[in-house]
Amino acid sequence: MSDDRFPGPDDDEQALRVLLERAVPRLPAPATRLDKVHGRLARRRRRRAAGGAAVAVVSLVAAGALLPDALRTEPEKVPPAASPPQAVTEPAGVRADFPELGGLVLRLPASWAALRLPDGAAQKTKTLPSGYVAAQPLRSYEQACSELKKSDGSGVLCEPVDRLAPDGLLLSLWGLPGGRDGTEALPSGTPMERAREVPPGCRRVGATAYYTTTRATADPTTVLYATLCVNGTGPDRQAAEAAALLDGATYDLAQPTEAPTPKRRGR
């Protein structure tokens, strides 16, 4: 049986090791070695962070592709739809054609009326108009205007109204010879000229003012001559309205210029 009071060989070796460790201090690691260790640790952290970010991005993309539209935070961008082709619309208003007047086409207010006479253009005189425009209904003729003579033989009675309506107007249209020796056409925008006296034909239908003007047509041999009978308190305003109507005219030379044969009363 051993006695703990007397150390053996193992105890002597352990005591010697402790004595040496105390007598000889441990040397610190070189600075370069520490820098290398720190660098390896930093690179390892960066690789872990980069790997984690890549996994997160892939997960978000996959989740966005698999989520239903109702759960997505932002709607998908849809390319704008192509604009439908714009339809070409006709000018507003009721169309009134006067082929004999250089293919004249007027656009009238819905409440206005137009009447085309068959014998005016061929005559090309101020006696026989080619047509009428009015701010009220017009009566048609059963026979040519040139055959409606007054009983006293003093002239041609062609007015297609018995009386002008209050603030009414009646625009008469003629085709006169143009060219160098013909009637001069006034430029667009020229106001209608008011006459000092109202002619018998206008007075007969109750007009209180009378205006005239001319305009060029698409046919260089034809000049549009227009007269206006007005019954109202603002005749100049009504004349300006009629002039604007003429200035907005278009011309269609493709229309047939042959006038229809008028109906005649019993032979």
Give your account of this protein's structure.
The chain crosses the membrane at residues 49-67. Keywords: Membrane, Transmembrane, Transmembrane helix. By secondary structure, this protein is of the alpha+beta class. The protein has a domain at 94-251. Helices cover 27% and strands 19% of the residues. It has five helices and nine strands; from the N terminus they run ααβββαβββαββαβ. The chain has helices at residues 9-23, 31-66, 120-123, 200-204, 235-247; strands at residues 94-98, 104-108, 113-116, 131-134, 168-177, 193-194, 209-216, 222-231, 250-251. The chain has a six-stranded antiparallel sheet with strand order 3-4-5-8-7-6, covered by helices on one side. Strands 1-2-9 form a three-stranded antiparallel sheet, with no helix packed on it. β1 and β2 form a beta hairpin. The longest helix is centred in the first third of the chain and has 36 residues, at 31-66. The radius of gyration is 52 Å and the shape is rod-shaped.
Task: List strands and helices in order, with pairings.
Elements: H1 9-23, H2 31-66, E1 94-98, E2 104-108, E3 113-116, H3 120-123, E4 131-134, E5 168-177, E6 193-194, H4 200-204, E7 209-216, E8 222-231, H5 235-247, E9 250-251
Antiparallel strand pairs: 1-2, 2-9, 3-4, 4-5, 5-8, 6-7, 7-8
Keywords: Membrane, Transmembrane, Transmembrane helix
Transmembrane segments: 49-67
